Amino acid sequence: MHIIGCPSAVSGAFDLAVVGAGIIGLSCARAAALKGLRVVVIDRDSQSSGASVRNFGFVTVTGQERGAAWTRARRSCAIWEEVAQQAGIPILQRGLWLTARRPEAVAILESFLKTEMGEGCELLSRAAARARCPELVNEQVQAVLSSSIDLRVESREAIPKIAAWLAERWGVQFLRQTAVLSVAPPLLETSRGVVRAGAVVVCPGDDVYSLYPKRIARYEVTRCKLQMLRLADPGFRLPSTVMSDLSLLRYAGYSALAEAAPLRARLEAEQGEHLEHGIHLIVVQSADGSLIVGDSHDYAATQDCFAQEHIDELILGEFAAATGRSAPAVRERWMGTYAAAPDRTMFIDAPARDVRIVMITSGSGASTGFAIGEEVVTDLFGGVQVGGVQVGGVQVGGVQANGNTRSLRSGHL
Ligand SMILES: Cc1cc2nc3c(=O)[nH]c(=O)nc-3n(C[C@H](O)[C@H](O)[C@H](O)COP(=O)(O)OP(=O)(O)OC[C@H]3O[C@@H](n4cnc5c(N)ncnc54)[C@H](O)[C@@H]3O)c2cc1C
Questions:
Q1: How far lies 107's CA from each of 151, 218, 385, in Å?
Q2: Which atom belonging to ligand 1 lies closest to the Cα atom of 48?
């Protein structure tokens, strides 16, 4: 790479430049590096601070939308196992514990278990659930969906570890505090000069304006804001990540089932305010016993930066209702945003033969990203191990790509 004004940052020309060092950018970088490609990841921030480190770290299979999303989550979960082991990332929890308090919720779970998405899941009676975790099962609980296939990592630690592993084990180069201003392979203009790469994957998170705004606008992308809390250690270990009735309306794997209609009607009558703010319950537990609890969903093109106490109270109210316990003290609060589209969970857009834009337009990037990274890299480069060989749509082992090379003046495209 040729970085004008920053000669010591990185060197050489790359097969692939990835814009964005969130989980999606890292997933694309991993898939490319494993094929032997020379990869650079460019991010404007000095450390990850986007959705990928603000989330629950819940690698969710159970409840993902039927079809491609569920299949991607299955694959991603398997890759997380491998990466976690190699990068020294502890898997802090396994599975899901979805507490059903209403018969309408139990009906959805019974139907869900009859589908292929019920793999690795079982429905526990109140007594069976109480035997496994007495602290979480009160008289309100009708049944519990218990899954064994989901994972949970501590994202704020896992994301830097994945980046370090990619750099040390696979030779991926990272260029941080560097904004990508324009993309036209084999050249990328950045805030620190020009980077040369044969292909580019743009993984901008919820930044819909900086690169390819017109292409992204075609997907009607808006932004979703979530409020999150960390609570003190409740004094016992959760069996798995915990969810409740409200979650059955937020995850398409359940909500698309015919049995969801009666629960929706009942929740509209009983918990209308929760639905209005897009609140449902996810509770995960960290190594020190503390709990991450959320969340709410508010949609707007530009989100305000103000957290509403009332929303936190509603989340904590659902925690108490689902667990039968009052919420421990709040230790931390934060907000996160992710890209959202009305009709799809993600998209891969091809503005040029050697460029892809990858945007996760639902709250599922930690769950599906590794599989999506593989798809993107296979789409660009094919499935063949490389070494100067023409594979897929982009020539590797050099920077000449697709005949659309542009002339470059110093540091300016
Ligand atoms: C509060 C919260 C909870 C969530 N919980 C979960 C969960 O438990 N499980 C799950 O699967 N999903 C969850 N999600 C969704 C998941 O976190 C996202 O889908 C995922 O992190 C998106 O990853 P990303 O890499 O696309 O975006 P990001 O993590 O936002 O990364 C994008 C990166 O691109 C960089 N960038 C953008 N434009 C440029 C540019 N022009 N030049 C240089 N750098 C640029 C940014 O600096 C940023 O670092 C949650 C999201 C939130 C907000």
A1: 25, 38, 48
A2: 49
Q: Which stretch of DSSP H or E encloses residue 300? A: strand 298-300
Whole-angstrom distance between the N-terminal and C-terminal Cα of the chain?
A: 15
Write the residue with the smallest CA distance to atom 34 of ligand 1.
Answer: 20
Q: Are strands 180-184 and 58-59 parallel, antiparallel or unpaired?
A: unpaired
Q: Enter the pTM of the model.
A: 0.92
Q: Average pLDDT of each block of 10 consecutive residues along the chain (413 residues)? A: 43 90 98 98 96 98 96 97 98 98 98 96 97 94 97 98 98 98 96 97 98 97 97 96 98 97 98 97 98 97 94 97 95 97 97 98 97 98 56 45 27 24
Tokens representing 405 are: 């090379």
Residue 249 near residue 280 (C-beta atoms within 8 A): yes
Q: Which atom of ligand 1 is nearest to the CA of 363?
A: 15
Strand 93-100 relative to strand 241-243: parallel, antiparallel, unpaired? parallel
Report how far residue 321's alpha carbon sits from residue 336's, in angstroms, rounded to the nearest whole number: 25
Question: In 10 A of CB 412, how many CB atoms?
Answer: 11
The tokens for 286 are 């960290």
User: 């292409």: which residue's tokens?
Assistant: 215
Residues 6 or more apart in contact with residue 114 via CB below 8 angstroms: none
- 133/357 Cα distance (integer angstroms): 44
Residue 186, preceding bond cis, omega within 30 degrees? yes
β-bridge mates for residue 130, sequence order: none
pLDDT at 11: 55
Return the amino acid letter for 79.
I
**Could you give the CA distance from residue 15 to residue 32 in angstroms, rounded to a whole number?**
9
Q: Whose CA is nearest to atom 20 of ligand 1?
A: 365
Which H or E run contains 337?
strand 330-340
Nearest to 57 by CA among 28, 30, 94: 94
Say if ligand 1 is within 6 A of residue 118 CB.
Answer: no
Q: Is 42 in the pocket of ligand 1 (CB under 6 A)?
A: yes
For residues 284 and 173, what is the distance between their CA atoms, to the nearest angstrom?
33
Distance between Cα 336 and ligand 1 center (Å): 9
Ligand 1 pocket test: pick from 18, 41, 44, 224 the residue with the most ligand atoms within 8 Å of its Cβ.
44
